Amino acid sequence: MRVFVTGATGLLGNTITRQLDADGHTVVALVRNPPHSEIFDGLNVEFVQGDLTDLAGDVANSSPDRIDQAIAGCDAVIHAAGFIHLGWTKMEQSMGVNVGGTHRIMRSCVRHDKKLVYVGTLNSIAVGTREQPADETTPIDNAGGQIQSAYVVSKSVALSAVMAGVKQGLRAVVVHPGFMLGPWDWKPSSGQMMLELSVGWKPLCPAGGCSICDSRDVAAATIRAIDYDGPSGRQFILAGENWTYKKLWTVITRHFDRSPPIVAPGPIIRAIGGVWGDLVTKVTGNEGFLNTAAVAMSRQFHWYSSERAKAELGYESRDAHESIQASVDWIRQRFIDIDPPTRAETPRFADASCFPSGYDLPGTCGKQK
């Protein structure tokens, strides 16, 4: 089987690529620029260089571009690319990648009758709570609701576009991963949080919680979704163990021989921090990881149930401690020269070029899944 994969340099996309290759399938990976050879070292991957936001090749459906031609020659498509920015700014870029790019993939899938597995996000469906984890049937307007940041808005619009496409003949399955941890986090994405926690003591932690899953388990279920023979447009939550951020940060800091956080900040401190971040954004024109949108999201309990995926996709989510260990091992191997770091030392990074713009740990701007 030939599978066209977007986002193949990101945590989930690269894991999908490796599993497809291990199973004897051919991956046709979309890349914006020639990737570092080590990201695909030893893998049988064909590359198509292109940009999902460049729509010139699709004008009037007249001259098919390289992306369209590549999809035509594949059996299925996994669209795992995305632009993530947890804040109020970068709406144009978020819409261009997450919405415009998805439209482009959809058009080619419909044109050539190819099955699409669209990688969504839990941020585009209902929010769970401590008392009641959400599932695919939970009303979107449940208590709290999603914070309408650039990422949430753009991914929600993209999901609506996919569901509208299904009504017009698109064959698609949608998967919504939880908070993913695991190896091959080249950017890094969630690994940035671990790098941040490996340096110094963080007495405060986010007040909410997340649903921890392993990128290897999510990748396996995403691949199985290609052969899903149920109704088109079916959505699946691929989550895991529901933990508070305090518990997660406590476990991670122990791996790096660091003191765990003491407490989650109260509403007043959260408000001050978020407003301060927004003020800095207005003054500098550059929105960092601290802003009112990110603060509001961090106090929510993004807790979910994956029972539908377990029953219909055979999804299995391993123990969260195993995923954390694998992620820590990868981060140490890839980014940290010393093992383990002591409280008196500052980690040194093996290859600063691995970061999109130097050593800029806070935030998740511009990272692929």
TrEMBL record:
Gene Ontology MF terms: aldehyde dehydrogenase (NAD+) activity; dTDP-glucose 4,6-dehydratase activity
Transmembrane segments: none
Its EC number(s): 4.2.1.46
Root EC class: lyase
Keywords in alphabetical order: Lyase
SUPFAM superfamilies referenced in this protein's UniProt entry, alphabetically: NAD(P)-binding Rossmann-fold domains
Highest rank taxon of the organism: Bacteria
Family matches, as InterPro entries: Epimerase_deHydtase, NAD(P)-bd_dom_sf, NAD(P)-dependent_oxidoreduct
One annotated Gene Ontology cellular component of this protein: cytoplasm
Keyword Lyase in annotation: yes
Residue span, NAD-dependent epimerase/dehydratase domain: 3-193
Name of the protein: dTDP-glucose 4,6-dehydratase
